[in-house]
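User: Predict Nitric oxide reductase NorF protein's structure from this.
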Amino acid sequence: MHDTRFPILRTFILVLILAIGGATIATLSDGNLIAIGTVLLIAFVKARFVILDFMELRHGQRGMALSLLAWCALLLLVALARPLLVSYLA
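Assistant:
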Protein backbone atom coordinates (compact mmCIF):
# COMPACT_ATOMS: atom_id res chain seq x y z
CA MET A 1 0.00 0.00 0.00
CA HIS A 2 1.31 3.42 -0.93
CA ASP A 3 1.42 5.96 1.89
CA THR A 4 0.11 9.25 0.48
CA ARG A 5 0.46 11.15 3.75
CA PHE A 6 4.25 11.47 3.55
CA PRO A 7 5.31 11.09 -0.09
CA ILE A 8 8.76 12.54 0.56
CA LEU A 9 9.51 10.20 3.47
CA ARG A 10 10.53 7.31 1.20
CA THR A 11 12.94 9.57 -0.66
CA PHE A 12 14.35 10.90 2.61
CA ILE A 13 15.01 7.38 3.88
CA LEU A 14 16.66 6.43 0.58
CA VAL A 15 18.91 9.50 0.65
CA LEU A 16 19.81 8.70 4.27
CA ILE A 17 20.75 5.12 3.35
CA LEU A 18 22.83 6.39 0.42
CA ALA A 19 24.60 8.87 2.72
CA ILE A 20 25.46 6.14 5.21
CA GLY A 21 26.62 3.85 2.41
CA GLY A 22 28.76 6.57 0.86
CA ALA A 23 30.34 7.42 4.20
CA THR A 24 31.08 3.75 4.84
CA ILE A 25 32.67 3.26 1.43
CA ALA A 26 34.70 6.46 1.83
CA THR A 27 35.93 5.33 5.24
CA LEU A 28 37.01 1.90 4.00
CA SER A 29 38.30 2.99 0.57
CA ASP A 30 41.93 3.80 1.44
CA GLY A 31 42.18 6.00 -1.67
CA ASN A 32 41.05 3.31 -4.13
CA LEU A 33 39.90 4.89 -7.42
CA ILE A 34 36.92 2.56 -7.79
CA ALA A 35 35.73 3.44 -4.29
CA ILE A 36 36.21 7.16 -4.97
CA GLY A 37 34.19 6.85 -8.18
CA THR A 38 31.49 4.93 -6.31
CA VAL A 39 31.26 7.60 -3.61
CA LEU A 40 31.00 10.32 -6.26
CA LEU A 41 28.30 8.36 -8.10
CA ILE A 42 26.36 7.99 -4.84
CA ALA A 43 26.74 11.74 -4.29
CA PHE A 44 25.28 12.42 -7.74
CA VAL A 45 22.32 10.10 -7.06
CA LYS A 46 21.67 11.89 -3.75
CA ALA A 47 21.86 15.26 -5.49
CA ARG A 48 19.41 14.01 -8.10
CA PHE A 49 16.89 13.03 -5.41
CA VAL A 50 17.30 16.37 -3.65
CA ILE A 51 16.90 18.35 -6.88
CA LEU A 52 13.94 16.41 -8.22
CA ASP A 53 12.03 15.59 -5.04
CA PHE A 54 12.96 18.01 -2.27
CA MET A 55 13.18 21.01 -4.60
CA GLU A 56 10.01 19.74 -6.33
CA LEU A 57 11.45 19.98 -9.84
CA ARG A 58 10.44 16.46 -10.92
CA HIS A 59 7.16 17.56 -12.50
CA GLY A 60 7.88 21.23 -12.97
CA GLN A 61 10.65 23.28 -14.46
CA ARG A 62 12.61 20.74 -16.53
CA GLY A 63 15.18 23.29 -17.66
CA MET A 64 16.05 24.21 -14.10
CA ALA A 65 16.27 20.55 -13.08
CA LEU A 66 18.52 19.69 -16.03
CA SER A 67 20.81 22.65 -15.42
CA LEU A 68 21.18 21.78 -11.73
CA LEU A 69 21.92 18.15 -12.58
CA ALA A 70 24.48 19.26 -15.18
CA TRP A 71 26.12 21.53 -12.59
CA CYS A 72 26.35 18.61 -10.13
CA ALA A 73 27.81 16.36 -12.83
CA LEU A 74 30.42 18.99 -13.70
CA LEU A 75 31.44 19.38 -10.06
CA LEU A 76 31.71 15.63 -9.62
CA LEU A 77 33.85 15.30 -12.76
CA VAL A 78 36.18 17.98 -11.42
CA ALA A 79 36.29 16.14 -8.08
CA LEU A 80 37.14 12.89 -9.89
CA ALA A 81 39.88 14.59 -11.94
CA ARG A 82 42.12 15.10 -8.92
CA PRO A 83 42.49 11.44 -7.86
CA LEU A 84 42.84 10.44 -11.51
CA LEU A 85 45.69 12.92 -11.99
CA VAL A 86 47.35 11.87 -8.75
CA SER A 87 47.21 8.19 -9.70
CA TYR A 88 48.43 8.93 -13.23
CA LEU A 89 51.36 11.06 -12.10
CA ALA A 90 52.39 8.75 -9.26
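Residues 72 and 78 are 10 Å apart (CA to CA).
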